[in-house]
Specification:
- By secondary structure, the chain is α+β, with helices and mostly antiparallel strands.
- It has three domains: about 90 residues, 3-Layer(aba) Sandwich (Rossmann fold), CATH 3.40.50; about 55 residues, ATP-grasp fold, A domain (Dna Ligase, domain 1); about 200 residues, ATP-grasp fold, B domain (D-amino Acid Aminotransferase, Chain A, domain 1, 2-Layer Sandwich).
- It has nine helices and 21 strands.
- Strands 10, 11, 12, 13, 14, 15, 16, 18 and 20 form a nine-stranded antiparallel β-sheet that branches. A five-stranded parallel β-sheet has the order 3-2-1-4-5, with helices on both faces.
- Helix 2 runs parallel beside helix 3 and helix 4 crosses helix 5.
């Protein structure tokens, strides 16, 4: 185990300055670790709390390369970065976690799917197309989900294609067609690995999605599944991160079928929406765990402290402008309600503006309050 450093004796660079980076920095402050951020948004959520902030595009080779030259360790809060610049920095001896080789696999959904096939990791059947004109060649594959191979995030770049009538909605670009399968639950496992090869997993959580926004609407922890399914999901998540050889934190999204099988849907090489509840509900938050992993520190306990539910605060449809969280104050007196506001000044329809975690003694208790919070808070323009 390497000697740990505190404060400014070494420099940790975060590529991307959104809400994930903001929550990462909040945990890094507890360790007196200074985090330096690169982002193209002058009003990025990380800007006000980063040790230093550099304005520049994370997809531009020169901007990212120059940013990384005086850093000792670099990590990312989003996959859509210039991997070639990270590879060059890695060759200079910089620690880059997750590694550029891992980002290459995960950034492109087609390559990601091929990785599952080559490593015998269960996943839904799929095929690759280069343009929407090829859909006519795959009518027998319907119903399916079309996913752009690159550039999609937060529900964007995903389209359901159930019948030929949906072809008009299809993306005209490189994408995968993934067989639409019946499933009983959508689960997620957060798993972390450091350079020493130590691995820790968080208990599985259950996600419920909004079909309109194509984003997580509710998250419940722990998932209501059997011990056998929990064990299978945990072992599958460990297998994925080990076969990637990845250092950092990884979200493994899973489908649970009626037959009790688990299929890997997608993976994300960073803190993830399905792990936000860990800030209040687990001994070690996913953000602290990511910090521990990339600095090669002993990983923290992932034990559950209390049951939890998480609701994303999304910009309301029809509102764009200076943000106002209508109704938030009426829930602040309820025990277990923990708001997290991301510091974004402008709201847009379905934009992630924050989240609320509800923690309590039982899933029944937190689910009941979660529904009230979801219906009672509206993110609108002031």
């Amino acid at each position: 185990m390497q000697k740990f450093w505190y404060g400014s004796t070494a420099r940790l660079g975060m590529v991307g300055g959104g809400q994930l980076g903001r929550m990462f920095i909040q945990e890094a402050i507890n360790f007196n670790v200074h985090v330096h951020v690169l982002d193209s948004d002058i009003n990025a959520p990380c800007k006000e709390i980063a040790h230093s902030f550099t304005l520049g595009s994370i997809t531009d080779y020169d901007a990212l390369y120059q940013f990384g030259l005086d850093k000792d360790t670099l990590t990312v809060e989003i996959e859509n970065v210039n991997i070639e610049a990270l590879e060059a920095l890695e060759k200079l001896g910089k620690k880059v976690f997750p590694q550029p080789s891992v980002l290459k696999i995960i950034k492109d959904k087609g390559i990601q799917k091929q990785f599952y096939i080559e490593n015998n990791i269960p996943t839904a059947d799929f095929c690759l197309i280069e343009s929407s004109s090829e859909l006519n060649n795959h009518i027998d594959f319907l119903p399916c989900m079309q996913k752009l191979t690159t550039g999609g995030y937060d529900g964007k770049g995903v389209q359901a294609i159930r019948t030929v009538n949906d072809f008009s909605k299809a993306f005209d670009g490189s994408s995968i067609l993934e067989k639409m399968i019946p499933f009983t639950k959508e689960l997620s496992i957060i798993v972390a690995r450091n350079e020493q090869g130590e691995i820790k997993t968080y208990p599985a959580v259950e996600c419920e999605f909004s079909e309109e926004a194509n984003l997580v609407e509710f998250l419940f922890a722990p998932a209501d599944i059997t011990n056998e399914i929990e064990h299978k999901a945990t072992e599958l998540a460990k297998e994925v991160i080990e076969k990637l050889g990845m250092v950092g934190i990884l979200a493994v999204e899973l489908f649970l079928t009626p037959e009790g099988d688990l299929l890997v849907n997608e993976i994300a090489p960073r803190p993830h929406n399905s792990g936000h509840h860990t800030i209040e509900c687990n001994v070690t938050s996913q953000f602290e765990q990511h910090l521990r992993a990339v600095l090669n520190l002993p990983l923290g306990s992932t034990d559950i402290l209390q049951a939890g539910a998480m609701i994303n605060l999304l910009g309301e449809k029809g509102f764009e402008g200076p943000v106002f969280y209508d109704g938030l104050e009426k829930f602040l007196g309820d025990p277990g309600v923990h708001p997290h506001i991301y510091g974004k000044a402008i709201t847009k329809p379905y934009r992630k503006m924050g989240h609320v975690t509800i923690a309590g003694k039982s899933l029944e208790e937190v689910k009941e309050l979660a529904v009230k919070v979801k219906n009672g808070i509206k993110v609108i323009a002031d």
